Amino acid sequence: MNTSNENGLNRASKAGIINWALGSDRKIVILLIAFGLALDSTNWFFFLTGTLPILGIQQIIYALFMFSLCFQRNKYIDLIIHFEYNAKLPSNDQSLDAYMKRNRYFFYLITFINFLINAAMNIVPFIMGLIKLNMSALRAFVFSSLQISFFCNFALFRFFVETCLYIHTCFMRVEKQIDTLNKSTNGLSIEHIRKVRRLYCIAVETTEKFNSLLWPVISTYFVFSFVSVHFIFAKAIADASFVTILVCAGYLSVFILVAYNMVYINHLATRIYQSAYSLSYKTDLLFAKKEVQLFLTRIERSDVGFTFLDLFVITPTCATTLATISLTLALAAPFLIK
């Protein structure tokens, strides 16, 4: 493994417990997280009455995905160095490291906010029950499984967000190469254009490979989380209380974080268009202009990004449309009930 591949692997493998476990081949950690997610599904099916039982199905799918991930470690390692291995670009880019570090701070902030909400709604009442000796074995089991699932869910979210960030950096590096050509005072040749076209195709291929690996998480989260957030938001509007507002804030913060990183892949893949179009002004060669046109045609397809069951690409427009529909229905819910 060359230095570029090692840097690419280290950038991803050191962030998050799941990435660390995959990078160091500690399958027991992955299995424990899978067990924690599966354990949480029993709460939604049997103990947490008045909640959404579909969340139990979501946790089972997550658990099965984590279990399958144990046997796909080599595939994951190949994916995380796929771009570096084929692009042959220097990977010690401080601006990319700063970008990932900055976005990780957002994840830490959202995790901390949700931990405070969890503490206020679950941990403090549980401690008060212990002090008053008003505690049953069932309540202790439900509390324990909820806390385990809290950390397991955020471990999975961290893994997913880190994957999105890695894909972001792939397209950002392609865009940086195009900007370098635009700023260059030298003439633009066919080889230069073909090189950036090839880099773009490698980034697209990397995205598609990760999409095929993560499709259970992507599809499940896209449907189940959207439905659950919608109902929680509608309940917060119809019956506003301190508890419902706290729950709504927690779910919305995680949903926005994950959805943003997911759709930003498509945004970066299409944002390159303007920079690529500028290349056409750098050359008078007919064949070079045709290469630029082929590049622009590929970008114009706007079909790069994570997909829902390979049916459609999850784009910013798609997410905005669904959010608008959800908000409209949530605001109309109190009047429809009356």
UniProtKB/TrEMBL annotation:
Keyword Transmembrane: yes
Spans traversing the lipid bilayer: 28-46, 52-71, 105-128, 140-161, 213-234, 240-263, 308-337
Keywords recorded for this protein, A-Z: Membrane, Transmembrane, Transmembrane helix
Record's protein name: Gustatory receptor
Species annotation: Tetranychus urticae
